[in-house]
Design goal:
Length: 424
């Protein structure tokens, strides 16, 4: 972890300017009838989960260029996640990927306690073969034509639930790479039926206080057809399985220009929005940093979430899911957590009464302007003050660099090889 004196010294250099900016923004928001302290309190209470795999350097299908001091195992990953939360105060939990993060649950819990974290949704992995794995997932996992392979994939998911129960998780996220690469390769109907049967077998063993999230993805690794390719299929799955099944929306898993905020609105309306994997994309599932390409879209998603706050049963899980190829993963994750908080804060500023009035009056220009007024507001002082008041860093990236953390861990974590693909 980072020494508190480093954070204090870095904050001391920035605190006076922050107070001045916060007061100025507070005055501006007061004129709009918004209490800045109330917005700050909501931002301070907000959290987004870190994916354990996010703290390692990712890669593309072609190569991976590792950075210095990469985590060697889940305990190093938890240490890095602890630093992210220490500086941002916005990432209180970690989402594990099994078997990548497999370890004695007691040790996992002890390490998480030590660095001040809890565990978010468990993620199963049936999209690659592991050493010593009996049956291959080359031609599918939960939908494989061979019943024994399907059973193996089901059992893996049940093991994820078991580990999750031991460490205090309350949800299982399933994403499969199953699909096909050639027209005619699979019977698409039979394949989906096999998926539903397998998912029912997992759902049947889901603890009462758990939720099952299924994640859709338009394409990749199957490039002709994918079993759970869009939110419609995802919704069908949730309907078929039961009330503990919800749809997970990964922002990168749609075709370019798809109206994701509308998908969010639909899933909220029918009580099936399970949560998010936040990231950004330019072309496809490029897993870029959240808010890096289209912060307005992120804001529009949060606009729907804020509008739905307080609805019975509305409790979506929030997690980052991105791949860092050219940046320090800790810095990217801290920046991305801030982008999510920013979109949330901006969405809290939307004058909903005015918006509803413009919508009813079919005043399209003023309705859009109402959203833009909130989106254009620089809420950085709100985010920074929320961090400062909870002992985080006013400027997390600058403080992280000043701390020398990366160089310190690089001394004990040996450099990793860049060989092989680096998809995460
Ligand atoms: Mn995802």
């Amino acid at each position: 972890m980072i020494d508190a004196s480093v954070i204090e010294a870095e904050n001391a250099r920035r605190a006076e300017a922050l107070r001045s900016d916060y007061d100025a923004l507070g005055a501006q928001l007061a004129r709009r009838g918004v209490d800045i302290d109330a917005v700050k309190a909501k931002v301070a209470a907000y959290g987004v989960a870190i994916p354990s795999w996010g703290v390692g350097t990712g890669g593309t299908r072609f190569a991976r260029f590792p950075g210095p001091g990469e985590p060697r195992d889940i305990f190093d990953k938890l240490a890095d996640c602890g630093v992210i939360h220490q500086l941002t105060r916005a990432t209180p939990s970690v989402s594990l990927h099994i078997p990548w993060d497999k370890a004695d649950p007691a040790d996992l819990k002890a390490k998480a306690d030590e660095v001040g974290l809890t565990f978010d949704a468990m993620n199963s992995n049936t999209f690659q073969d592991q050493p010593q794995q009996r049956l291959s997932y080359k031609f599918g996992s939960l939908t494989h034509t061979d019943p024994a392979t399907r059973r193996q994939a089901i059992d893996h998911n049940l093991e994820c639930i078991e580990i999750g129960q031991a460490i205090g998780s309350k949800a299982l996220t399933i994403w499969i790479g199953d699909g096909s690469n050639f027209p005619g390769q699979v019977d698409m109907t039979a394949q989906f039926d096999r998926y539903l049967d397998a998912a029912r077998a997992i759902y049947a063993k889901l603890p009462d206080d758990w939720r099952l999230f299924t994640e859709h993805k338009m394409y990749e690794p199957a490039f002709y057809s994918t079993v759970v390719q869009d939110w419609g299929t995802n919704y069908l799955i949730a309907q078929e399985l039961g009330e503990k099944a919800f749809c997970l929306v990964d922002l990168g898993h749609h075709a370019p220009n798809v109206n994701i905020e509308m998908i969010v609105a639909r899933l909220i309306r029918f009580g099936r929005l399970g949560g998010f994997h936040f990231n950004d994309s330019k072309y496809g599932d490029d897993d870029l940093d959240t808010g890096a390409i289209d912060p307005f879209r992120l804001f529009l998603v949060f606009n729907e979430l804020v509008a739905a706050e307080g609805k019975p049963g509305f409790d979506p899980a929030h997690m980052l899911d991105q791949s860092h190829n050219v940046t320090d993963p800790i810095e990217s994750l801290m920046s991305s957590a801030a982008e999510v908080c920013r979109a949330y804060a901006q969405a809290l500023l939307v004058d909903r009464e005015a918006l509803a009035g413009y919508q009813d009056a079919n005043d399209a220009l003023m309705a859009a302007a109402t959203l833009k007024t909130a989106f254009r507001t620089d809420v950085e002082p709100v985010l920074a003050m929320a961090r400062l008041e909870s002992d985080g860093a006013i400027d997390p990236v600058a403080t992280f660099r000043a701390s020398g953390y990366r160089a310190r861990v690089a001394e004990v974590r040996p450099a990793t090889s860049g060989a092989g693909g680096g998809i995460v």
